[in-house]
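Section 4.2 – Deliverable D4.2 (structural model, holo form)

The reporting period included a commitment to supply a predicted holo structure for the target in complex with D-malate. Inputs used:
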Amino acid sequence: MIKINENYLKLKASYLFSDIAKRVRAFQEANPDIQVIKLGIGDVTRALPVVCIDALHKAVDEMGTDSSFKGYGPEQGYLFLREKIADNDYQARGADISPDEIFVSDGSKCDTANIQEIFSADANVAIPDPVYPVYLDTNVMAGRTGEIKDGRYEGIIYLDSLPENHFIPKLPTEKPDLIYLCYPNNPTGATISKGELGKWVDFAVKNQAIILFDAAYEAFIRDESLPKSIYEIEGAREVAIEFRSFSKNAGFTGTRCAYTVVPKTLMAYDKKGHRHELHPLWNRRHCTKFNGVSYPIQKAAAALYSNEGKDQIRELTDYYLQNARLIRREITALGYNCAGGEDSPYIWVDGKRSSWEFFDLILNKAGVVCTPGVGFGKCGEGFIRFSAFNSFENVQEAMERIRKIL
Ligand code: MLT
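Output (structure tokens):
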């Protein structure tokens, strides 16, 4: 008799953002005349940069001629893209990462979800609370947790991220093997200094742990003192895997392109205590389960590293940062405490009531969608998250509607 993976039964019935989309659809059906403004899921709304469109057109034409047609590409990504990533995102910032340590993929959601496969089933996992739900849910699916009790899974080391610690958790007293970190943070919008990140790198070195560092929002950093990559921190090549995406900087949420960095110096242990490189393990996984991002999409991503491409990314991210500042200013003026919204497209608001009450209030009375903080974990209860990914006009309108009801 075929049996299911019972770990799936430990999960909430649906993924946070699917759940919210369902509620919004129901509201919209009941109120067809209200134009709902979505500041919930972090999905970009502005068109792809012109450099990408030009590169896509050219690449599609290449696919239309036998002599330049491309079939399967390298699973790890074309070298023309990996070289640009290594030069611009790492070497230019003093981070020693080479093209063959980069794996191009179709998204950081998938990579942060899949990476845990190369670690042992009994790895002790430390996860921030609140957190991007994918890190936690995929470890539940893999059987690294017990049941959920009072909003928390048994077996997980939770790293509380609260206003009192500026949303940078304290180092745990337990000894984790895998540590998830994300800065600029989703959902709190908090950033981390090189000094604070250095403490985590030292902690990982001391505990023979690996940090899984999600840097999907690095393009929103304007404060030059903040690290854009964990590899700007000494020692990180020995303990960190980094995830980056073209989704939020260049609007690729529907286009799909991202990359993961697995340095060749990264080691982990087998049961007998023998050391193994992680790079060949991830390479094996990538080649076995993934066939590469399409050629035109990789050409579009590579175009972002030209001078025009860099300017166009800057323009896009500045636009969303202007929205973020407006949301932060307006919500603060209404008497609410906020984090994020600077160097980040997310604003984390203490809603002074339960997260879902706040969500329902602004959806039902203002037709504005946010994300309830409790959906990101127990420490998110009482908070809500606004995303700055929408048009400036819609954000202005949303703030006006919220001002009227709060
Ligand atoms: C979010 O809203 O947290 C993100 O858009 C989710 C994602 O990138 O998958």
